[in-house]
């Protein structure tokens, strides 16, 4: 049925992006919501209202373009992100001060002897069927952790599996005819909203159930001392320790729509012009269109999807649809390496012919690799320190570091490698530290160490100029806004006018990365290049690819923000912008040991050189790497000083914004 629906939807022509001032349609699911929507439309002419019978119908309408947006809870954010609909959250609600995150908890009486692992055959009390705190989160968590056995099979419904797991339950609002055991514990008619006797805490208190699933704030303060919480690790805690003992967090509401940046921008712009007193009040109802407890709306990063928005709760929701994730074999049969560009993929494929457990997959950028690794689709990639920082914010860990000093290879207590960030200019160009402002610049990429984070931090500190876009007249910084001056000098693939590769963060952009930034300078596009200290020597005096064959290292010099202010290329120790950590391999925590083992073993294979790039430069690993060394404590790999520099770097990468999203933001 789902496949058929997807096919049918795919045949429909989606609505084109809205022109400025054109109306967008808000989907509502009741007459009171329609009344409120029509009232808001009198204050915002671009807003039009579209009535459907329920949220599912609204999501279908948004998918096809018949409607454009709706506000939903976390479960429907997940549902909307499925291939049936392909919707994503674009705006989230911000709530009143004191409106804390709600936690779904499992409550029992204080003298209860069983743990959460022993729930089979017990009696249970729930908030309403399909409520977040009483059904979706607790049941999804218990399934994902294999407490309730259910594999997602269509032969047995989720509700059937739950009814067989508990000896009796009270799940107000579920079909009594279809699932009598799930209403067996109710003292009333099993309707939702529940009668007083069937509310989950009352059900537990009266011994109609042995465990109650509800939001933590529904436990009466005067009776907390008589109850406790069951934790997923098998322990129990006091009712007030819900932040350390819960089944999941109830995320805030979000507006979902099709993935269309211009449509999202228009919706947010129009909603922002409507007074909050009108948006967040519900005459004739409760929480109509938006939550009454909301105070404002926050625009989400464009990269945000249901996976980023729901965070840990994504797996809970996924388990409600498909059952628990399969347990991966240990050790894993393969480590899936993320490569960027044809050169990296070709080298990785050659290595995989020798390293049996290595598999190579492609992505368009480091950010996409980080997302794929975080999702579990891929496992590892080597990146620079700035990208290690971004990966840590996304929950990944640094597993192995590149070591550039051969003498340190084989030493367990050797200092981690590092390199110098330098600013290179052509001799005789007249470009100096004092007149750098307004010049044309070449960067390895936005939010990368040598090319962006360090020069921006230094210019901000020494010149009080913190915006690279305004400090330089124009430049090439792959990953910048394509319409900005920081993409103006980029070359792209050089194959076509209107090249889609221009300013992209992959090797298809010829000025991307260390070698690309130096090429930008060497070919006269820019007047200063921010790169790693060894890049000039590896691309001059007969070294490097075809484009560099006639370059001489003596034709270039360094400029530095302190005395001597300029120096020969070889004097980078005395003329640099910072000493920064080496590149490192990042991975998920659950696959980290497999990645380390694979790479350690690979370094012992005869006749293999992980660090040689025949068809380019710095492919998969930096060419200057002598060995890879295990990072024992990933949290200490980046120094606090270095992290402070990155924390102050602007703009904050969109990926990091998505990874650190507060999906229940509270007004400060």
From TrEMBL:
Pfam families: Transferrin. Monomer. Fe(3+) 1 binds at residues 73, 102, 253, 384, 419, 583. GO terms for biological process: antibacterial humoral response; iron ion transport. This is Serotransferrin. It is found in: Secreted. GO terms for molecular function: metal ion binding. Fe(3+) 2 binds at residue 514. Belongs to the transferrin family. InterPro entries: Transferrin, Transferrin-like_dom, Transferrin_Fe_BS. SUPFAM superfamilies: Periplasmic binding protein-like II. Its main location: secreted. Residues 1-21 form the signal peptide. Hydrogencarbonate binds at residues 134, 444, 448, 450-451. The keyword Cytoplasm does not apply. Keywords: Disulfide bond, Ion transport, Iron, Iron transport, Metal-binding, Repeat, Secreted, Signal, Transport. Residues 24-321, 335-651 form the Transferrin-like domain. Disulfide bonds join 27-58, 37-49, 125-203, 170-186, 183-190, 231-245, 338-369, 348-360, 394-659, 442-520, 476-490, 487-503, 560-575. It comes from Misgurnus anguillicaudatus.
